[in-house]
Structure formats: C-alpha cells, structure tokens
Amino acid sequence: MPDSAIVEVRELLGEELSDLEIRVLCGAGKLGNRITNPRVQKPGLAFAGYYEYIKPGRVQIIGESEMEFLKRLPLTLRAERYEKIINLDIPVFIITKGLEPEPSFLARCREIDLPVLSSKALSSSLIKRVSYFLEEHLVPSTRVHGVLLDVYGLGVLLIGSSGAGKSETALDLITRGHSLVADDRVWIKRYPNGELLGTCDEPLRHHMELRGIGIINVQDLFGLAAVRERKPIDLVIELEHWDETKAYDRLGLDETVHEILDTPCPYLKLPVALGRNVSNLVEIAVRNHVLKLQGHHSAREFTRKLEAKMARERSKE
C-alpha cells in the first residue's frame, strides 16, 4: 500500500528549506495544518474577487504585486476579500522579499490562528524551492522488500521470498562492476511523469546484510562507483525457488508486467536452482531488455524465422 503523502506547514521551517530563512509571523498554533497539493499558488485572482481559483491544500505565495494590489483596494472591500479568502481551505500564506504584511490582513489571520510565514527570498526563488520540496514529499510512495541495482545503466529491482538469494546475487553483480542503490527495503516514489524512482533511507544506505557475514558497507569495500543514491526502476526480476511441477516460459514470447504504485513495470521471473549462475542470468536479462527497448525482440525474431522456414518447406511438398 502507498504511504500517505502528507506535509505539515511546520516542515517548511525545517533544515531542507533553511536557506530560505522562513519565519512565523502568526498562526504558530496551527503549524500542523496539512499541505495536500504539491503545486503552490499566488492568490492574486482571489484578491480580485475570483475565489474559485483558490485550489484546496495549496501553499499561497504573496509577493510584491499582490501587496500593491491590496493597498489600492478600499478598506471595506479589502476586509470583505480577506474574510472570504481566509475561510477557504488554505493551509498557509508565505510573504516573500521580506515585505511587511498588510496590517489588517495579518490581524485577521492572527485572530483565527491561520499561519502566515515570511521569507526574504524572491517569489520566483521561493516558488521553485517550495515546489520541489513538496513534489519530493507529496508524491505517492511505498516501500518494497527487495534489492535495487544499477545494471548496465538500467534500474533493476530484484524481488522474491526470503532466502531466494537476492542479496547474494546483488553482491555478485556488484563485484562485476554494477552498483547498489538499496538493499532489503527499497523506497519507491511515483512522479507525475510516471517515473518510479527508487532510493534507500538512512541508515541503511550503502549497506547490505549477508547471512553468515552480517552487515557490510558496499561503498567502503568496493568504492564510490559501487553505489548510487537513486535510480529509476526499468525492470523487475523475481527470483523464485525452482519448482519442478511448474511450467516455466522457455521462449520468452510472453511479456508480463509488475505493478508498483499502479504503474506497470516490465517483469521477469527467474527460477533459482543449485548450479545456476543467477547473476549471469540477470545480466543477460538486462542486455536482452535493452535490445527490446531498441526494437530487437530475439524470441519474436526467432519465431518469425522458424515460421518462414516451415512455410517454405510446406510449399515444396
């Protein structure tokens, strides 16, 4: 199940955005207000009376142009606009360029404890930074039990039951020059463009657990080239204990997918048996997938040639 995507207003005051020097002007009691929309908004149209343009759960950015517009409004109309706007689903206002807020606006927000923050940053800079922060924290995410690797430039997610050999296979691939992204718990985010990006949380980053050896630090053992911070997921390979009663795909004509966060990923199932070089099979599977991406499907090309040969032989009869 995806993790709930929630950002509270107080998180805007954290270390990640410390360079913006955001401070609280009022509403400290409601810093737990939830921001649910990653896109920020400037409420200029709402100040002009078009309240329907305020989208729920968005951070509202007030810059110099909005301030100048408010100052030109008659006092009674200004108070009316404030009353309408602050009763909408707005988690927080942020005033940019270190501008002094319009006194009656700040006083009304203070009365209802609605958070108003201030930053010396330009509107353009603050919008860019806050938008990136919210996109990172509000996109759908989930954690998957598996190992994520960079193999020949592709993000390969190894999954399978406990004891299937995921970590051992990953270690063998690392010794062959490929790179580790995450072991055991892979944190995956789905971005609006459909990309699934996998990474690893601290303190597990760059570490692996190997039965009989314990925890190892891959970066310390193999160097910087042996690890990656994050990687888009291009192929999912499930390692499964060999079952003689099962009929496994022998031609590779069937293409299946594995859904992560409602997004389909190309998927293969590799049966693991004594004597099979699984890491070698993973490398070949990745190379074959690259060929498919380039328009070369080995199994289909083989089938077409075989069918053509059979057709020629039938025509001679």
Which structural traits does this protein have?
Rossmann fold; elongated; single chain; 16 strands; 2 domains; 317 residues; Udp-n-acetylmuramoylalanyl-d-glutamate--2,6- Diaminopimelate Ligase, Chain: A, domain 1; alpha/beta; eight-stranded mixed beta sheet; 32% helix; four-stranded mixed beta sheet
What does this structure look like?
By secondary structure, the chain is α/β, with parallel strands linked by helices. It has 2 domains: 132 residues, Udp-n-acetylmuramoylalanyl-d-glutamate--2,6- Diaminopimelate Ligase, Chain: A, domain 1; 161 residues, P-loop containing nucleotide triphosphate hydrolases (Rossmann fold). 32% of the residues lie in helices and 27% in strands. The strands form 4 sheets. Strands 13-10-9-7-8-14-16-15 form an 8-stranded mixed beta sheet. The chain has a 4-stranded mixed beta sheet with strand order 2-6-5-4. The chain has a two-stranded antiparallel sheet with strand order 1-3.
* CATH topology description of the largest domain: Rossmann fold
Tell me the fraction of residues in β-strands, as a range: 25-35%
**Estimated structural class:** alpha/beta
What profile does the largest beta sheet have? Answer: 8 strands, mixed
Main sheet: which strands, in order across?
13-10-9-7-8-14-16-15
Number of domains: 2
Q: How far is the first residue's CA from the last residue's CA?
A: 59 Å
